[in-house]
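Here is the promised in-class demo. Please do not try to memorize the tokens; focus on the logic of going from shape to residues.
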């Protein structure tokens, strides 16, 4: 299983960051690759709830994120499924002087594996995943800073 992890800090409170992160109406503005949100379960972001979204034409297709762990004020872990991979994505929020530190981590397993999969992951996929997570957090930071009162 491959993994990618990024951390960024923003001038916002944990509560502001959480509110922005879980507000799926804002996802198209900052979630890398997302074109539109299709469905959101009424219990989102609580345990068992799911969001289904669709990427742009060159992206991941339909993606489902189902909550498998949720701790208000701390973060959430979702099981992620799309046409090419499954995995777990975690977001954590930590208070720090003057803001919040947000960590986004993705552990993924491609549906199709071969003897060269680990090499391809190491050389190409992991870097692409890390860059995507970094773009997501960077855009999220702009959004959460703009959402502050």
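The designed amino acids, position by position:
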């Amino acid at each position: 299983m491959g993994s990618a992890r990024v951390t960024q800090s923003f001038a916002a409170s944990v509560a502001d960051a959480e509110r922005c992160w879980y507000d799926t109406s804002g996802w198209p503005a900052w979630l890398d690759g997302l074109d539109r949100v299709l469905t959101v379960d009424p219990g989102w972001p609580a345990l068992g709830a799911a969001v289904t979204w669709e990427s742009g034409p060159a992206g991941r297709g339909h993606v489902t994120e189902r909550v498998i762990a949720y701790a208000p004020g701390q973060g959430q872990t979702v099981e992620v499924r799309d046409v090419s991979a499954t995995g777990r994505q975690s977001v954590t929020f930590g208070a720090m002087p003057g803001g919040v530190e947000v960590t986004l981590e993705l552990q993924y397993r491609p549906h199709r594996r071969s003897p060269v999969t680990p090499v391809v992951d190491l050389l190409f996929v992991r870097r692409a995943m890390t860059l995507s997570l970094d773009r997501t957090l960077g855009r999220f930071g702009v959004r959460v800073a703009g959402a502050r009162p």
